[in-house]
Amino acid sequence: MKSFxxxxxxxxxxxxxxxxGFASDIVAGNKIHLGRDVPLNEQRSMNQIEHGDxxxxxxxxxxxxxxxxxxxxxxxxxxxxxxDRYLAHLSHANPQLNARDEARLAFWINAYSAVxxxxxxxxxxxxxxxxxxxxxxxxxxxxxxxxxxGGTAYSLNQIEHDVLRKMGEPRIxxxxxxxxxxxxxLLNNAYTADQLETQLTLNTxxxxxxxxHFRYDPTQRKFQLSxxxxxxxxxxxxxxxARLRTIAPYLPSxxxxxxxxxxxxxxxxxxxxxxxxxxDQAIHQ
Length: 285
Hints:
Blueprint: H1 4-10, H2 12-19, E1 26-28, E2 31-34, H3 52-61, H4 70-75, H5 77-90, H6 101-123, H7 141-144, E3 145-149, E4 152-155, H8 156-164, H9 196-209, E5 214-217, E6 222-225, H10 228-231, H11 240-247, H12 254-262, E7 268-271, H13 281-284
Parallel strand pairs: 2-3, 6-7
Antiparallel strand pairs: 1-2, 3-4, 5-6
């Protein structure tokens, strides 16, 4: 774990970025603030938030499997500035103003993944996000890395549990990315209101098509599911049968679909181990 002094040195580049007006990064104790404190008269609906900068960065640094070129990204001052400019742009959103549900979902999905990537870039080189999740004392990336949105600071935990999960769309769990190999892939384009349904469907299908996230043994009538379905099972339904019916349309075979929809109570369910290794292109080349 880096000392506070080391962290200040590592974040030194952000001081220059703040001077340029792209971001106001503030380190206070173990808290790191991203974005800006935007005056009320400059805040706007999430309908008006653009995700073009994030889209361009994803296309540049994320491959089709969701692996991130962290080394190249961190070495590019211009692209680091673009990421901080995007986070500062997100700060202009006011969650209290009217907006399409699709715009809200796209906003918070992009925000979660962008903040996560920024947090990893702070620490990089690193082997896992779990190296930066102190449980008692010290910096915890899920609690202490904060994005200012409409004058309120949101941690990753708050974005996930207090905002996204309460929006009633379980497929967010196959869209937001915790920078780990067992996470869903980081889509290499930004989520948008107009494309949200297509993007969520695509990434959910890709998720269940991977043997790292789903396996079906027809001889034993056994499903092996990602631990995500265990940790957040209630988001998919009140019991196993309901949860299997929820994910059935995205399962990779007709046989698995038929069992999940017609006789889900008869299927044994276990959960796959979760790989917290970093989703780093340098590892997967």
